[in-house]
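Write out structure tokens for Spore coat protein.
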Amino acid sequence: MANLNELELQNLRHLIGGHDTVATKLDTYAQQCTDPQIKSMLQNHANSARQTKQQLMTFLG
């Protein structure tokens, strides 16, 4: 892993936080949704955001 400078680290943290926020919001929208197709789409996108967050977090280690 390459060493990150301060700006890269801040940007990475911002991206991680953004994906976390998106996943949480999409989960909330899916819980409130009554259309099964839209509910499934929202859940899939929430899971994708969580996976991307996890991938980004590997750069912190």
